[in-house]
Amino acid sequence: MAMKRFEIEAKFQVPVSVDVPGRRAALKARSCGATQEERDFIYDTPGRVCSRAGRLVRLRRSGRRGCLLTFKGRVLPGRFKKRAEINLPCDDPGKADAFLASFGLQGRFDKEKKRRQWRYKQCLVCFDRLPCVGNFVEIEGKPQAIVAAAQNE
What we know:
Layout: E1 5-14, H1 20-27, E2 30-31, E3 36-44, H2 49-52, E4 56-62, E5 67-72, E6 81-90, H3 93-101, E7 106-120, E8 123-130, E9 134-140, H4 143-152
């Protein structure tokens, strides 16, 4: 039986002019490593059954680390974005794609980004740069920790 975990996050679009990595250094947040190039493939049925139900199936390819298959449930009511999340690491994106296709799921669209992560005030903070879309900061953690981290961001 799969263990269900809830992701709780706040996400903000930030102007390109804001030096988020410089701000991270000033706050003395702990880096989680170098910037990673990621490519997310979002899957759904031809009739968009998943998205109509507020659910997401994603295959993420990241650097040389293989891939991560993720299911996200519908967003629950509340101050922050909270939803069930199940992650399954895999080492073969082709097999993961074939597995999803066997359930009638097809790659509907994909997006590329550069992601930098760090730990700050008991949260995981991600800084994403998406070409042609913009820059985003995502703060993931318990609600009170998200509030504390966001007040200093």
